[in-house]
Amino acid sequence: MMRQRPKRASGCLWVALLSIILIFIIGIAYTKITRSVSRQFGDPDYRLGMISRLRHTFILYQSGEILKRTHPFSTDVKIEIAMAEKVNSVCDNLQNQGLVRDSKVMCSYLVYTGFDRGLQAGKFTISPAMTAIDIAQRISNPRYKDVQFTIYPGWRMEEVASAVNQAGLPIFESDIFLLFKLAPQDFADQFAIPFGMSVEGYLCPGTYAIKPETMQHELLTTLTACHEQYLSDGDFIQGLADHGINYFEAITLASIIQRETLEESEMPLIASVFYNRLAQNMMLQTDPTVQYALGFDEAAHSWWKTPLTLQDLEVDSPYNTYLMTGLPPGPISAPSRAAFEAVAFPAQSDYLYFRAKCDGSNTHDFSITYDEHLSKGCP
Known about the structure:
mainly alpha, Dna Ligase, domain 1
């Protein structure tokens, strides 16, 4: 029995020695792995626990290379992150849209770096040149959230410039207005804008989400994109031709109709009134053109003064359709699709007059004769 004790001691010594060697090897391997991952992806978030740090470090060591590849799509892609959305859900959505190759690896990178704690709710624009690492940095930085704003039908370009600036696009409001004030030559050629005219009327109503680094020319391209659709619509263009009106004149008339009514169902009938008056060489006598000519009303802090006075109706301006026959020199606001369609496909009527109903419904009474028109005045 006494002779076997050295064997036990010797066995324990070997186990201890092997354990030390194994720990040494594991330590070297761990150091190599952590250094490799740190060189590629930076240091891990200091708030990570040991187990979580080890797990995500090993995932990145094994598969992190795929985060450095770009993707085969050719145009910008829009993504949206909901308020308080979980990181796993964000990663799954990115993979489903083809923006990352492996949601598990993407999540590991977000957690490893701590970007998961800073994910921003909102819309983002992802370009084809971005890697998954670029995307992670973008969606965790509020500076890269898409700038969102709405252009409402009936707005003039000054109102649009103000809305774009207030939304946070890093372009001065004055620069945006200057961009709108004189249509660039390529836009003028594309959309048949007469020389020296602004892009008034060509800024498409709608809600936009634009990447914050958008340049001025790109902004204008985005805000006028609806006209490419209109110009490619054969029925729409034929409708204008049938009524002897060109595209610029159509925008001008649509912009007036837009300011005359909020009721889309009335727009074709109002268009018929204006067509009838133009055919008889009558002045259009439409208040919105006078409001446009007057400009900003300091008292009401509005670009659309209301009500108008008799003195207002005498303002000396080519836009004053109480003094000038025919259409004004150009559009006065941003018309909706419905207003455009009313110009291309007006109702058939003999009406020459319309006025607001007295019931507060924001709709109108229509008349053929001036006497009938007067009889429908409010008490």
